[in-house]
From TrEMBL:
<keyword id="KW-0067">ATP-binding</keyword>
<feature type="binding site">
    <location>
        <position position="33"/>
    </location>
    <ligand>
        <name>ATP</name>
    </ligand>
</feature>
<dbReference type="Pfam" id="PF00183">
    <property type="entry name" value="HSP90"/>
</dbReference>
<dbReference type="InterPro" id="IPR020568">
    <property type="entry name" value="Ribosomal_Su5_D2-typ_SF"/>
</dbReference>
<dbReference type="GO" id="GO:0051082">
    <property type="term" value="F:unfolded protein binding"/>
</dbReference>
<dbReference type="GO" id="GO:0005524">
    <property type="term" value="F:ATP binding"/>
</dbReference>
<dbReference type="Pfam" id="PF13589">
    <property type="entry name" value="HATPase_c_3"/>
</dbReference>
<feature type="binding site">
    <location>
        <begin position="99"/>
        <end position="100"/>
    </location>
    <ligand>
        <name>ATP</name>
    </ligand>
</feature>
<feature type="region of interest" description="A; substrate-binding">
    <location>
        <begin position="1"/>
        <end position="343"/>
    </location>
</feature>
<comment type="function">
    <text>Molecular chaperone. Has ATPase activity.</text>
</comment>
<feature type="domain" description="Histidine kinase/HSP90-like ATPase">
    <location>
        <begin position="26"/>
        <end position="183"/>
    </location>
</feature>
<dbReference type="GO" id="GO:0016887">
    <property type="term" value="F:ATP hydrolysis activity"/>
</dbReference>
<dbReference type="InterPro" id="IPR019805">
    <property type="entry name" value="Heat_shock_protein_90_CS"/>
</dbReference>
<keyword id="KW-0346">Stress response</keyword>
<comment type="similarity">
    <text>Belongs to the heat shock protein 90 family.</text>
</comment>
<feature type="binding site">
    <location>
        <position position="343"/>
    </location>
    <ligand>
        <name>ATP</name>
    </ligand>
</feature>
<feature type="binding site">
    <location>
        <position position="79"/>
    </location>
    <ligand>
        <name>ATP</name>
    </ligand>
</feature>
Length: 565
C-alpha cells in the first residue's frame, strides 16, 4: 500500500491550529499527555491478555520509554502496549470523536481574551495534539498487539497527515516529536535536556503504575571498555490511593486527577476512603471544578476507574456511583474481586452495592462539609453540578433528605445569591405553611409571570426554578421538614385566608355576582380551558392560566415531549 495523504477533520484542524499558536503557558504538560496515553495503552493490553483476547501479545516487560536526542532535537515516547491498527490510527488521531468538540470550539471563538481561551483549552484537554505545542513535526509508529503490520502517521500539524504501512514496527506505539528550535533566552524550556524530562515526569507522572524509563543519551554514553549504562526509571510507581494521607502532597493527588479526569485543571476537592474488614477497598475520588460540556448527553463518560489490587480493570465503572454523581472522577481499588469481573457481575454484586452506598454517602457528606466550611467552594460546586445532583432527589430516595439539605435554589429573596431550603424556612412569614416555587425557562420569565404578583405584593418568598429536573423533583419530593412544596402555578392558592377570614365570604359574593360572566367565558374557552374563576392571586394582570394541582405544568409537558414521551 502506498503512502496516503489525508485531511484532518475540520474540528481537528482547528484544534491543531490552537496548539501550534498555543496561548497555554505551561507547555510541559504535553509530556504528561503522551505518557498518559502510553499508560492507558499498557492498561488496555494487560486487560486483553487477562481476558484471553490477545493470546499472541507480549506482556513480559510492559513499560514506557523516553529517548531524547539533543543533536537531532527529537524526543520519543514509546510504549509496548495495545497499539493501533491502520484504521484506528486514522480514526483516533485524525479526527476528534468527542461530541463536545463543536461546542467547545464555538465557545472558544467567543472567548474574548487569552485567559478565557486558556481556561477553555484546559477544560477540553486536547491530549495527543498537545505535542504540537513544542514540536513542528510529529511521527507516530504503531503496531496493534497481535497484528503483523504496523502503521506510520506523520504530520506537521497543518491541514494534512500521512499514513503508511510499515513492516518492522515493534508492538505498541512510539511518538517522536521533532522539537521546535530551542529558545536561547529560555533554557528552562528545552525539552531536549534529560534533566528537564526527569523533572516533568517526577512532577506530573510519578504515580503512573508502569515504569517510565529513560535511556542514557547515546552521545553521553560512557567511554570505551566501560559497560554501557542501563536505563533509568524516572517514576516511583506508587499507587497514591494505597499510600497514607500524610505521605502524599496535594499536587500529587491533583496530577492523578488530571490523568484520570482528562482535565488540565486542579480538582475542587479530593476525597479519600479506606474500607477494611470483609470487603477491603481503597477509594480516591475527586470533585472536578468545572462541569464538562457533555454532562447531560447520553454518551457521557464517567470517570471512576476500577482497579483490583493495583491492576486496572475498567474505566467508566457505572456500578460504583449512582448516575446523578456521574461527574465524580477517581479510582476504586478493591482487594477481593476477580480480575475477570465483568460489568454485569458488578451490577449484581452485593459487596459492590454496599460500596456504592458508602461512596455515595461519602461524596454527599463531603459536599455538606464544604457547605459549612467553605461557602465559595460549595457555591462553585453547586453552580457546576447542582443540576445533575438534583436528579438524585428523584432517583435516590435513601439520600433524598441529604440532597435536599445540600441543594440551593434561586429565590426572590436575593437577585444573585441562591438559598437553601433551610434558610427559606427560617425566613417564612408567620402563618405561612408552605414553601412556594415557580418553574420556568428563565429567572426573568418567571419573575414576570402573573402568578408572581400576589406573592410579590405580600412579600412572600418564591423559589425560582429553571432546570427541567426541578418540576420532577418538586412533585416527587412533596415536602421539606413538614412544609409542603407548592407551585404557585397550580391549583387554588388562598394567600389571604390566614389573615382575613372575611375574604372567603367576600369571594363567594363576588363569584355569585359574576356567575353569568364566568359561565359565559368558560363556555367560550371550552376547548382550551376547564374553568374560569375569580382569583386573588393577581394584582396587575387581568387574567392568568393555572394548572390543576397534580397536573403537568406547561414546562414539564415540554420536557416530556422533548424526551419523546
Ligand atoms: P484521550 O486520551 O483523552 O482519549 P488523546 O488525544 O490523548 O485523547 O488520544 C486519542 C486516542 O488515541 C486515545 O483515546 C487512544 O485510543 C489513541 N492513542 C493515543 N495514544 C496512544 C498510544 N500510545 N497507544 C494506543 N493508543 C493511543
Ligand atoms: Mg490522552
Amino acid at each position: 500500500m502506498p503512502t496516503e495523504t489525508l485531511e484532518f477533520q475540520v474540528e481537528a484542524r482547528q484544534l491543531l491550529q490552537l496548539m501550534i499558536h498555543s496561548v497555554y503557558s505551561n507547555k510541559d504538560v504535553f509530556l504528561r499527555e503522551l505518557v498518559s496515553n502510553a499508560s492507558d495503552a499498557l492498561d488496555k493490553l494487560r486487560l486483553e491478555k487477562l481476558r484471553d483476547d490477545a493470546p499472541d501479545a507480549d506482556v513480559s516487560d510492559l513499560h514506557i520509554e523516553i529517548d531524547v536526542d539533543g543533536d537531532a532535537r527529537t524526543l520519543t515516547v514509546r510504549d509496548n502496549g495495545i497499539g493501533m491498527s491502520y484504521d484506528e490510527v486514522g480514526q483516533l488521531i485524525g479526527t476528534i470523536a468527542n461530541s463536545g468538540t463543536a461546542k467547545f470550539l464555538e465557545e472558544l471563538r467567543e472567548a474574548k481574551d487569552a485567559a478565557g481561551e486558556e481556561g477553555l483549552i484546559g477544560q477540553f484537554g486536547v491530549g495527543f495534539y498537545s505535542g504540537f505545542m513544542v514540536a513542528d513535526e510529529v511521527t507516530l509508529v504503531t503496531r496493534r498487539a497481535g497484528e503483523g503490520h504496523g502503521t506510520r502517521w506523520t504530520s506537521r500539524g497543518e491541514d494534512t497527515y500521512t499514513l503508511e504501512p510499515v513492516d518492522d514496527a515493534p508492538q505498541g506505539t512510539s511518538v517522536t516529536l521533532h522539537l521546535k528550535p530551542a529558545d536561547p533566552e529560555n533554557q528552562l524550556h528545552d525539552y531536549a535536556a534529560p534533566w528537564k524530562i526527569r523533572e516533568i515526569i517526577k512532577r506530573y507522572s510519578d504515580f503512573i503504575t508502569w515504569p517510565i524509563r529513560m535511556m542514557p543519551e547515546s552521545s553521553a554514553a560512557a567511554g570505551e571498555g566501560d559497560e554501557a549504562p542501563g536505563p533509568e526509571t524516572l517514576n516511583s510507581m506508587k499507587a497514591l490511593w494505597a499510600r497514607s494521607r500524610d505521605e502524599v502532597s496535594d499536587d500529587e493527588y491533583h496530577e492523578l486527577y488530571k490523568h484520570i479526569g482528562h482535565d488540565w485543571r486542579d480538582p475542587l476537592e479530593t476525597i479519600r476512603l479506606q474500607a477494611e474488614g470483609t470487603f477491603e477497598y481503597q477509594a480516591l475520588l475527586f470533585l472536578p471544578a468545572h462541569a464538562p460540556h457533555d454532562l447531560f448527553t447520553r454518551d457521557f463518560r464517567r470517570g471512576v476507574q476500577l482497579y483490583v489490587k493495583r491492576v486496572f480493570i475498567m474505566d467508566d465503572c457505572e456500578a460504583l456511583l449512582p448516575p446523578y454523581l456521574r461527574f465524580v472522577k477517581g479510582v476504586v481499588d478493591a482487594a477481593d474481586l476477580s480480575l475477570n469481573v465483568s460489568r454485569e457481575i458488578l451490577q449484581q454484586d452485593r459487596h459492590i452495592e454496599m460500596m456504592r452506598r458508602r461512596l455515595t454517602k461519602k461524596v454527599l457528606s463531603t459536599v455538606k462539609d464544604m457547605m459549612t466550611k467553605d461557602q465559595d467552594r460549595y457555591a462553585t460546586f453547586w453552580r457546576e453540578f447542582g443540576t445533575a445532583v438534583k436528579e438524585g432527589l428523584v432517583t435516590d430516595p435513601e439520600n433524598r433528605d441529604t440532597v435536599l439539605d445540600l441543594a440551593s435554589f434561586a429565590s426572590t429573596h436575593h437577585d444573585t445569591e441562591p438559598t437553601t431550603l433551610k434558610a427559606y424556612v427560617e425566613r417564612m412569614k408567620d402563618g405561612q405553611d408552605d414553601i412556594y416555587y415557580l418553574t420556568g425557562e428563565s429567572r426573568q420569565g418567571i419573575e414576570n409571570s402573573p402568578h408572581m404578583e400576589a406573592f410579590r405584593d405580600r412579600g412572600i418568598e418564591v423559589l425560582l426554578l429553571t432546570d427541567a429536573v426541578d418540576e420532577v423533583w418538586a412533585d416527587a419530593v412533596g415536602e421539606y421538614e413538614g412544609k409542603t412544596l407548592r407551585s404557585v402555578a397550580k391549583g387554588q392558592i388562598d394567600l389571604d385566608a390566614k389573615d382575613d377570614d372575611s375574604a372567603d365570604g367576600e369571594r363567594e359574593k363576588q363569584t355569585e355576582e359574576y356567575a353569568g360572566l364566568l359561565g359565559w367565558m368558560t363556555e367560550q374557552l371550552d376547548e382550551d380551558i376547564k374553568e374560569v374563576r375569580l382569583s386573588s392571586r393577581l394584582t396587575v394582570s387581568p387574567a392568568c392560566v393555572v394548572s390543576d394541582a397534580g397536573e403537568l405544568t406547561p414546562a414539564l409537558e415540554n420536557m416530556y415531549r422533548a424526551m419523546g414521551q
